Amino acid sequence: MDAVKAKNVSLGYNTREVLQEIAIEARPGEILALVGPNGVGKTTLLRALARQLRPRRGTVRVNGRDVWRLSTLEVARLIGLVPQHEAGDSSLTIEVVVALGRMPHRGWFLPLTRRDREVIARVLHQTDLYELRQRPITTLSGGERQRVLIARALVQEPEILLLDEPTANLDLHYQSAILSLVQRLAYEQKLAVIVSIHDLNLAALYADRVALLAERRLLAVGPPRAVLTSEHLSRAYGVPVIVTCHPVYNIPLVAPVLPPRPSRAPGGSKAVREVPVMDRQSCSE
What pLDDT band is residue 258 in, cutting at 50, 70 and 90? Predict the structure, then answer.
């Protein structure tokens, strides 16, 4: 059974419709990447899956049940949402922020139980935050702060993990560290993971399936090599792209096609430098 499934979902704000007739699902133990241009509605879709935005049409089901028929507490125990940004209070340490994720299991004012502390300690170790747990979150780097938000979601012990641009504004080291952590959690804990991401090459590298949103619709969904094609991506982003095969991992490797640009010809006049055409090599099954 799909852990989370959106069927014919249409979403919008006030009079503006953002997405129409979206149908996606995520299964336990897999990562589904949401990709598409800026403003296409990736965050909006994540909000609907997390029961923060009611669909205008269609349904979102979690373990076969309509998410809007579940209580807020039930949703918090099933779904962990990691936002892209969150302001921090300098008075809060990593451990305190992470511990807030146990609220669905113990309420706001009850003290932490032994079980709560065991879960918090385990997650802090999993996310390599245990040694930093007494540091105020405002002293952290962007990658460290992102791990704190993931840890807070994980101590909810969810079955579904939703992440909104977890690698935004991070360097290559932290991009790899964050997505490797998410991949390990999905596979080892059988979490159903849906992550919105701008970097198409990271999506190809870490996701089991990719959902490409464009023109307010789901343009394509499936394995990376079926979705991340030059035809699909050129249509979605409005620019020509070349898709070749990664030399190591046998997955799509996406690069934009540069427009011709002027270069100086002999005698000082401007000449147009032709853009070399790369050979396209498709990935084998």
Answer: confident
Of the pLDDT bands very low, low, confident and very high (cuts 50, 70, 90), residue 273 is very low
Between CA 41 and CA 114 the distance in angstroms is 41
Decide if 223 contacts 232 (C-beta within 8 A).
Answer: no
154: tokens are 């994980």
Pick the CATH number of 4-223 from 3.40.50.150, 3.40.50.300, 3.90.980.10, 3.30.2350.10: 3.40.50.300
DSSP 92: -
Inter-residue contact 189 to 21 (CB < 8 Å): no
Count Cβ atoms below 10 Å from residue 237 Cβ, excluding itself. Answer: 19
User: Quick check: helix, strand or coil at residue 5?
Assistant: strand
| pLDDT for residue 267 | 60
- Which secondary-structure segment (H or E) carries 244? strand 241-245
Q: Which amino acid is at 62?
A: V
Instruction: Band the pLDDT of 157: cuts 50, 70, 90.
Output: very high
- Provide the pLDDT for residue 257: 87
pLDDT of residue 127: 92
Give counts: helices (H), strands (E), the chain: 10, 14
Output 97 or 90, whichever has higher pLDDT.
97
Describe the strand order of the beta sheet including 192-196 as a list of residue ranges.
79-82, 160-164, 192-196, 30-35, 209-214, 217-222
Segment 5-31 shows an average pLDDT of 94
Contact 196, 34 (CB under 8 A): yes
- Residue 123's identity, in one-letter code, is V
Domain assignments of the chain as residue spans, ordered by start = 4-223
Instruction: Report the alpha-carbon distance of residue 219 to residue 221 in Å, rounded.
Output: 7
For residues 162 and 46, the answer to whether their CB atoms sit within 8 Å is: yes
